[in-house]
Amino acid sequence: MDNLPPTVKLVAISKFHPSEYLQAAYEEGQRVFGESQVQELQRKVSEMPDDIQWHFIGHLQTNKVKYIAPYISMIEAVDSMKLMAEIQKQAAKCNRTIDVLLELHIAEEETKYGLTIDACRELLKEGEWRKMTNVRICGLMMMASYTDDSDQIRNEFTLASDFFDEVKAGYFANDDYFRERSWGMSHDYPIAIECRSTMVRVGTKIFGPRVY
What we know:
This protein is α/β, with parallel strands linked by helices. It has helices at residues 19-27, 38-47, 65-68, 81-93, 117-126, 150-171, 189-194, 204-207; strands at 9-13, 32-35, 53-56, 74-78, 98-104, 135-142, 180-185, 199-202.
């Protein structure tokens, strides 16, 4: 992963990989790791160095937020006001501010989570998030359709990128922290970077096939 521009952060997707793989990446200088299972994450946090930034990348159930609130750096897939309210509650208990990304559902696959662009507009317009002093919305995340059609992937990333500009101008124009565009994975991250991604989530290219 030497070909990333300096403006793009690499989130090493380490879920289902053993801690020794993470340690090897850590020794190469990697500090941001993405996990999607609460128990696996808790175990790895206890085994790995303290200066790692842990991103929760999967679908997060509200009843699991309390377990990761003390140490999580970013929750990348916030797809409801209910989840954001729970993150606020648990972050406040820990006297922390937790960074989050709003997850968009743009891909054509039904299995993916996330807010439609219209639902995301509505959530922001309603403004309940403004009262949440322990949650900081830092940008948007999405996954493109899993397809070999690079034009379709590019169109989906471009749609997300254009929507980012709309949200930035409408709600976060003066907030430097609202800057993350988290799209791009092992198979499509070069296109994502062309489409202004600031954060790519790569696992297989770093760690090889998953160990189950």
